[in-house]
Amino acid sequence: MAAVFALARKDLRILIRTRSGIFFTFVWPILMAVFFGLIFGGSDSGSSRIRIAVADEDGTPASRDFIARLAKGGNLDLDLQSRAEAGNLVRTGKRTAAVIFPRGFGEANERLFYGDPPKVELLIDPSRKAETAMLQGFLLQEAAGNLQRLFNDRTASRNMVNKALNDVRQLPETDAEKAPLNRFLSELDQYVTTRPEPASGSSASSGWQPLAVDTRETRADRPGPRNSFEVTFPQGILWGILGCVMTFGIGIVTERTHGTMIRLQMSPLSRTHLLAGKALACFAGMIVIQVGLFALGWAFFGVRPTSWGLLVLAGLSTGIAFVGIMMLCSTLGKTEQAAAGAGWALMMPLSMLGGAMVPLFVMPGWMAAASNVSPFKWAILAMEGALWRGFSLQEMLLPCGILIAVGLVCFVAGTRTFRIE
Amino acid sequence: MLKLVGVRKSFGATVAVDGVSLEIKPGEIFGLLGPNGAGKTTTVHLAIGLLRPDAGTVHIEGLGAPDSPSVRARIGVAPQAVALYDLLSAEENLEFLGRVYGLGGRRLAERIAWSLDFVGLADRKRGLVRTFSGGMKRRLNLAAAVLHDPELILLDEPTVGVDPQSRNAIFENILELRRRGRTIVYTTHYMEEAERLCDRVGILDHGRMLALDTVPRLLAGLGGHPVLVIEQDGREERIETADPLAELNRRYPAGAVERFRLERSSLEQVFLNLTGKTLRD
Q1: What SS3 state is found at A20?
Q2: pLDDT (tens digit, 9 = 90+) per residue, A328-339?
Q3: What are the helix (H) ranges across B105-243?
Q4: Neighbours of B64 (CB within 10 A)
Q5: For chain B, N or C: smaller number of CB within 10 Å?
Q6: Chain A contact set for B87 (CB, 8 A)
Q7: Residue to test with chain B: of A267, A269, A278, A280, most B Cβ within 10 A
């Protein structure tokens, strides 16, 4: 057994001293997991506010108050600029849109039911229509909130109605709207004067609202990743394992071509010892990759397994599967170049099909069905089962069983075709 | 020590070793001499159990057939290819191989130190093998073969591609091993090496053992007579004779010869006489 450990230690030592092996086995997977995790949305603790420019040409308390409430809403990241600079920022793609508050906004804001409404100008980037629609919604929401506050504040609403009555009385008698407006505003004045005050605090939320929206956090109840890193870290681990498979597979071919395999064969080592040493080194490398990446994900990227026990089961099954695949890859060519070419040609399609690039749950139906032939799919499914799919032990048996079976079949096939020279 | 009886090995239609029989005595250096493709390496692989003979037997005295791990542990081999790990240091290579041969602890450390010192690489023990010259790699290859202090050592073309300084160092190492009572099988296609080092030599060609004896007996029996070369009046005359001095006195009784030299027969000549071709053909 000491000889098997010596073989494994020697192979790991050589792996550590092989720059390309280290990069593709340990560095590249981390880069992939973190990079794609950030691209696909990162963790839910990050900001997702829309960045816009704002130009306040009106400069009245009403416009300043409106802008302040927009900023306070938490959905927008505001950058106060002149009209020209705001337009430039949108044109150069540095801001999604620009909102201009033109002169007259504050005056129009004090009118109700007559005259021109308060107006804002919206400069948009046509390539970002979804965010623009959201921005329009935020502006209308704030305008409705403004109306709500006016109605819930007796003094402000009486002042507004009285101003409107004075304006209506200035209209000529021939104006068809004068009489009905005068009647409506007088009755409105009577209503706001005599209606009871809202409950203590007079807050807008406790009075009349155009629409009450009850928002609830439902994320904890649905089966899905808590953040994109819970999807990209299993993918990154599979990339590392792929690097490990290729490095060790080609390493066995190198032992043959450099004559060291002959020396080992001449030693007291049996063929079983020899293969066991190779398998142990590769398995240890894969476990190090998994432990390292999950530790990194846990510490910095919010990756939280639902079951540590099932995650260990997934990791061990994955290791067994890919050790077998490594043995098979080592028999695909007589030279390093031939083995590497054949190995990558086999492994790349399997990895792409198996979800190491495109997440399994976004694959179209036919592709998801085809992915069943790939061991990468079952490895990712097993890891996701322990991370966020909430698999029971019984549900884990299918992916883990398939992985172990694949590993054993490939290992036997690989060792039977294994040649010393 | 090592006995091969009627050993035959074929690879497809090619007969690599054809009925070879030999017996190597304890404490001797036995040379297997032959051109490339003669069957020397295949014979070594048969001797250590790496290959199974199609016919015949291989037996190591007191141990049995060499295909069991316990027997192989008593044999040291320096393969023809420098079989070392480039990304490990000299010391790490030996540490790994020592553990493969069952060494450990203080015994392993002692044997590593002795082996590196033996081949003159103690000061380079922490250097990665990929930084070594061809000669240094060959010497480390030899250190790996003697690391576990084997009784029987097989050296397969140990001086191929080696500079003269390293070659001499390797010769000294091999002679030292004989002084320590080790039995050595030495394959080579360099006749000078066989003449200088080996107690007995077997000459192989096309897998067949053409001759096997001590070097003096091979030269006497198969090398022909020495050649007397006489230079006189700008001409060179070559005379093959059993008694060069008598021949010289007979031709030039007054001693009026300008210059002469004597060319002794060599293993090259033995091989030429046996096969009709030179070793380097």
Answers
A1: helix
A2: 888 887 888 888
A3: 105-118, 134-146, 164-179, 191-197, 215-222
A4: 12
A5: C
A6: 13-14, 17-18
A7: A267
